[in-house]
Amino acid sequence: MHKPRQQHEQHRLVGQVAAWCLPGLIMAPEPQSSSPRPCHSYYTVGYALLPSKVSSVVQPSLVALAAEREVRLVAVDVTRPLAEQGPFDLLVHKMYGRAWRAQLEEFSAVHPSVPVVDAPAAIDRLLDRATMLNAVSGLSASVGVGVPRQVVVNGADPNDLPVLGALRFPLIAKPLAVDGSAESHEMRLVYRRDGLRGLRGLRAPLVLQEFVNHGGVLYKIYVLGDRATCVSRGSLPDVPQNRLLDVDTEPSVPFANISNQPLPDAANGADMPPAGFVDEVARGLRRALGLHLFNFDMIRESEEHGCGRYFIIDINYFPGYAKMPGYESALTDFFLEMLPATPVHAQLGPGSGLDIEARKLDPGPGIGLRKVESDRAQA
Ligand SMILES: Nc1ncnc2c1ncn2[C@@H]1O[C@H](COP(=O)(O)OP(=O)(O)OP(=O)(O)O)[C@@H](O)[C@H]1O
Ligand SMILES: O=P(O)(O)O[C@H]1[C@H](O)[C@@H](O)[C@H](OP(=O)(O)O)[C@@H](OP(=O)(O)O)[C@H]1O
After folding, report:
1. pLDDT at position 32 over 50
2. How many alpha carbons lie under 13 Å from residue 40 in its C-beta half-sphere?
3. 117-134 pLDDT per residue, tens
4. How far apart are the first and last CA of the chain?
5. ipTM value
6. Is the Cβ atom of 229 under 6 angstroms away from ligand 2?
7. How far is the CA of 320 from the centre of ligand 2 (A)?
8. Could you tell me if 285 and 296 are in contact, meaning their C-beta atoms sit under 8 angstroms apart?
């Protein structure tokens, strides 16, 4: 039900933007302020994103700054075969489903020299909460960050699960799948065992994860290649021990999209995690995940309830970068780092920028999906 509407919206949105410079391409609008430049001086970064992500991330300020640095941002038309579009010097994407994966494979077979950020198999690990946090356990123990204990519930009554005995209440029930839908952000905070009965309202499969008291402050770390930027946000408040025993209160409560909340006044003076620690965790995760574009949510256990350990609770692919201060220049820098030394159409010589057939005959040095994956293995 969800996807056809999204595709329709995307088609409409793509149809609204002006075609400029190269026939057959659909592009982000050229910023009014930039002076005319010959087409060949530009790099072209193709982006394949849902309409909501386009409107949050591909803002005029980003398009303008990238253009100043000779990078133009071009929307992929997802209603047409990807391999026939371009030429692109770099492709970034966050789309769901097998058909899109097949399009990427075909694109890389036809254009092996074009880096695709990121590899679909690596992104897939973040689309399932059972595998999402596995990379954290791969970080060296000396880094000092963990994940809350959790179990996966595949449809059976969670009360019947023998493993549940190992978890301590309160728990958070989270949908297993992370698929960009509103439902994938609908959760329940479960205070005691009888609260698990109400979970039948949430669609299984689910993850039941231990809630960690953390003073209502969450740290969101935005990763863009080698850069990591940490911001603080509001989060769920601590759950006092007596709330777990109070049978006159609701045994579970629903919530959604908490981490979009600003920091509550009371938490405003909260210490940020040390920059060196943030960088170390971000670097370790980037290597373990093999991804360039993601953010992760980290909390610090309240000292009155524990010993101040850090926990990672969520990792998101291609997050809302516009919420990060200075995102325009960070994203443009990232594109420039990922781009090859020469624009692809300039490598092919004058007049060949539109010639897809010529590129099929001359596939270049071969740095498509495979190159990005091998860079990752070496990192
Ligand atoms: N184990 C936990 N302990 C304490 N609080 C938690 C825990 N897990 C989640 N939360 C709280 O619930 C919120 C939502 O959880 P989570 O990040 O897993 O969901 P999400 O829908 O994927 O979030 P986002 O919109 O940031 O992607 C967190 O921002 C945090 O406030
Ligand atoms: O598109 P889905 O799969 O629903 O994932 C969301 C993430 O879960 C959120 O974490 C992103 O917001 P933040 O950048 O505030 O983390 C959010 O970014 P958005 O503000 O661009 O929608 C999304 O990436």
Report:
1. no
2. 10
3. 999 999 999 999 999 999
4. 41
5. 0.95
6. no
7. 5
8. yes
